[in-house]
Amino acid sequence: MDSSQTLTADAPLPEVAGTEKLLLSLVALGLLLLLPATFDADAWRARWCFYAALGLLSAGTLGWAAWKYGRKPPGVHNHNLWLRASTSRGAVAWVTGLVLTGFYVILYWFSSPDDQGNFGPLNQLVHALDPVSQLLRNRPSDQWFLYGTFYTLAILLMGGRALWKYRHSPYHLIRTGVLMFFQLGFAFLLPGLLLAFQRPEFYFSYFWPLKPEYLFPDTVGYLLKDGGPGLGVFMVFWTAVISLVGVPVLTYFFGKRWYCSWVCGCGGLAETAGDPYRQLADTSRTAWKWEVRIIYTVLVVIVLLTALLWVGASGAVPALASVTQPLSQAYGFAIGSVFSGVIGVGFYPLMGARVWCRFGCPMAAYLGLLQKHFSRFRITTNGAQCISCGNCSNVCEMGIDVKQYAQRGEPIIRASCVGCGMCSTACPRGVLNLENGPREGRYQGSQLIHADSLRILS
Q1: Where is the 4Fe-4S ferredoxin-type domain (predicted)?
Q2: According to CATH, what is the number of the domain 379-457?
């Protein structure tokens, strides 16, 4: 064997134990049962296959997480991430991305109900949830209830995995628990209960500009009318106050992490189901340039669209009435469906879990501007302790090359940082710390360390 063959030989992966194979087999069997649940013409049999699939997926995932991480010492470990085809853009990752992308395409564009209540390719899966939907919402299931169920289950199951994996960190235990709570309570159960009481479906954990329609004139009118004089007014008041007052105040004190890493459902899925793919985020300067160009363009578009809709609704410019509605629909298709859904989640195994948060989310852009220019939040570094291992950059799902800041002893004050704290957790030397200190001296980390070094040398 020549030297070139020796250098390019693949490193061996550790052998998979029998217990792990058994638990992963439960997951595989659960996925397999989704096929008869989708295509079996017998509705009763399809329904039971569906519930059996969810049960096997849940038991297999939680059992595997407990076995995989509970037997090892606490701490952030790479676990051969760059050797496995599932987490290094290998064949398994491409197949997973294709399946996720295909599901979103079918959900958004091929699952609208016809006059007979048929939901196309997802019809059996949708109606399998009719009993749950009737119990929670007092109405039959639809494609969005199916999606909400899958979404919530993914966060709960992979949140359980995260609780095992990061059990050594109180910060991550609490943060993961809060994410699971908001998704289950505020994004799944509460909107369903509102429908059960004949009130508008409303998500209290989503605000403008992430949920731009909540400040659109038509939505405001609908909430005031169907929500009633009490609840409807509160919904409109809540959206306006939290978007325009609450968000800036909370971001001033805590940075954008209070929302992006603790409350938001998009961030919740990224931090749980997307955790195996966080190392895939592109840290290049080119990626950062595209990030800035795209995300702030989206924010400008939604601000202008909201303003145009209100001007059009006022009747001051009659010609706008024929323009604003198509613009709103185009935004919903390009950003709400294609970007946040198909690309934002479907590309997890190929581009990392925060593609939508990095490049397309107007809420992240809004919070990022506040965080960079007005917030007390930053990640402080102690360059003298940095050993340049690169663990911090490897786990940053926002594509920030944290190691470069740590080596220079500079505080990390980036608009894109969601404050997940994973860089601090992964650091073996305690170099990085999340702080909400005074705004004075936010950018002086490197200068202060340099001055201290000069004093020591002198």
Answers
A1: 377-405, 409-437
A2: 3.30.70
CA distance 283 to 352: 11
Confidence bin at 5 (pLDDT 50/70/90): very low
State the chain's mean pLDDT as an integer: 90
Q: Using one digit for the tens of pLDDT, what is the confidence trace for 285-299? A: 999 999 999 999 999
Domain boundaries, the chain: 167-375, 379-457
Q: What is the pLDDT of residues 178-196, one digit of tens each?
A: 999 999 999 999 999 999 9
Compute the distance between CA of residue 173 and CA of residue 147 in angstroms, rounded to an integer: 26
CA atoms within 13 A on the CB side of 379: 28
Give the residues across from 412 on adjacent strands. 379
CB 372 within 8 A of CB 413: yes
